[in-house]
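Predict the 3D structure for this chain.
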Amino acid sequence: MFRTRHFTAKACLLAAFALAITVPLVAAQAKGERVLHSFDPDTDGFLPSGLIRDRDGNLYGTADARGQKDFRGVGTVFGLAANGTFTVFYRFKTKLRDGKYPIGGLARDKAGNLYGATSEGGGGYDVCEFGCGTVFRVAPDGTETVLHAFAGSDGDLPVSTPLQDGSGNFYGTTEYGGADGDGVVFRLAPDGTLSVLHSFDGSDGAIPQGDLLADKKGNLYGATFDGGSGNCAAGCGVIYKLAPGGTLSVLHSFQGLSDGSSPDGPLVRDADGNLYGTTVGGGSTCGDGDGCGVAFKLAPDGTLTVLHVFTDGSDGGYPEGGVIADGAGNLYGVTVDGGLQYCQAGCGVVFKLAPDGTETVLRSFDSGKGGFHPEYGLTMDKGGNLYGTTWEGGANGDGTIFEVKTK
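Done. Predicted structure below.
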């Protein structure tokens, strides 16, 4: 049977959030933003994902929706050189066998190959109306290879960045599909063999989102947007650990307003084994009453500490894309809404959280050429400069790549 495609689960949740509350901010806005590139929907694509950065300062990412007009727009893989030159390495084509709509970020190997996932296309059209998605490789010469086309039973709608181990295996998640339709964690071997390591069933989570994180022992950590034992209609989401043998443990099941709901975006882990991340709901009664999200710390013993409750005011609202960390234990991320009120509910912010939870807004976006509504997380260079993307604004109104200096 055909299933109607959802763009992303988080888009459905965010569509319900509208109102804003303003509270005093502990620390004032610092530094500024520089637009490195404004997307042209006729040539570059738009709705850019998160970025990765190589040692030479080049940035790489994917853009969803429209690519070049000749291809009717099903996405691109791009690079932005340190000198500002923007290059489209691959444009996905209308035949869809090569994939359609790359949503997640990219991984890059030493040879310069780029790896990612498309949310549609590839195959599985008897189960998924628009195809169940692919994992792909784009070589430095622009040649694209589909490494796996999902069929529904082994996953549907992959949106996470592929995580590669030392043996060349890739790990990732799909939002749907699997034995119960609630998403899977998979491993893709170098020879193209895909193994479903875990199928979610709702009680242990549903709709896994964000990238996987691995420790030195080979355990995988991640988050699901729904499911678990929380007080939300479909569950408030979980943080989980998947052991190399395939045993999944729920480390925390979110409860809603008290500790957050719907964790979204990758996690980071410190030397003591603490996990850090964000939720796009819960924490307070702002927005439509379901909360505007939190930043949290999850200790190895299962104790969850809310580091910051977002209000959708000057501090931002609905943090997507998780967080990254520097060597001093500070966390950095973005919110889709909040900040300066040029947009109806705010245009979003780049924030910094100190280890004690003190927030500093590093950038409040406006609705003009500076870009607004950042949807994906950040990457950082050795100098502490932050790089990210916005889905709207810029010279053409279709998103930007930006830099924020923290020093």
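The chain is about 0% helix and 35% strand.
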